[in-house]
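BUG-214 | component: ligand-complex export | severity: low

The export step for S-adenosylmethionine jobs runs without errors, but we want the raw record kept on the ticket for reference. Input record follows.
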Amino acid sequence: MTTEPRYVPAAGRESLTKFYDLGIKITMREGAWRSALAEAVTAGAPATIVDIGCGTGTLTLAIAARTTAKVVGIDGDAQILALARKKSGAEAIDWREAYADRLPLDDASVDRVVTSLVLHHLAPATKVAALNEMFRVLRPGGSLFVADWGKPHGPATRAAFFGLQLLDGFANTADHARGLIPRYIADAGFVSIARIDRLRTIAGTFEILRATRP
Ligand SMILES: C[S@@+](CC[C@H](N)C(=O)[O-])C[C@H]1O[C@@H](n2cnc3c(N)ncnc32)[C@H](O)[C@@H]1O
């Protein structure tokens, strides 16, 4: 059903999905970036916002709380969407089970796409296909926000990222450690690619990129 060599669930293993929110809270310094990302995504009164690989919906819900836009949360895993749907405020979101490389959305129908901690789950060819899909569904002038692992600050963050690679896989994470994600985004056709945040976490260097569909 998927083009993925291995579908990598939220916490790396299906059995760990129920602990995902707790794990992220402990490891990802969420206070330093989730709210700021939700603010950036909702700025400028967009009409439609899509969160791809929304997982348990933490970011999707933070976005919905800040906007009157239609908010769509897409994930390929029914188990994690079930957790998202149980959260307070979930009724405001259009949750859909679908893969990032086959989005159930019309061409040029979306003002903002955000994808947080998802690209590193995808094999290189699927990253390309997913970014092409994000480009397809965005309106000209629409914005893409990618929050994910980037080139480590130095040896300590590189060593920390090795632990994440053991859990989530090497083939899908290697290009993150090489700092190649901005190039993937450019190759999909996006312009004005900018890094808007970069932080050290205990699992590696995390960064937030913004780009525009011309
Ligand atoms: C680490 S979680 C991130 C969840 C959420 N975006 C966040 O910021 O906490 C990665 C999510 O991507 C989803 N995912 C992985 N591969 C996918 C694919 N090919 N299509 C759609 N979702 C995918 C997983 O099911 C999981 O929920």
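Assignee comment: Attached the raw record above. The chain has one domain: 14-212.
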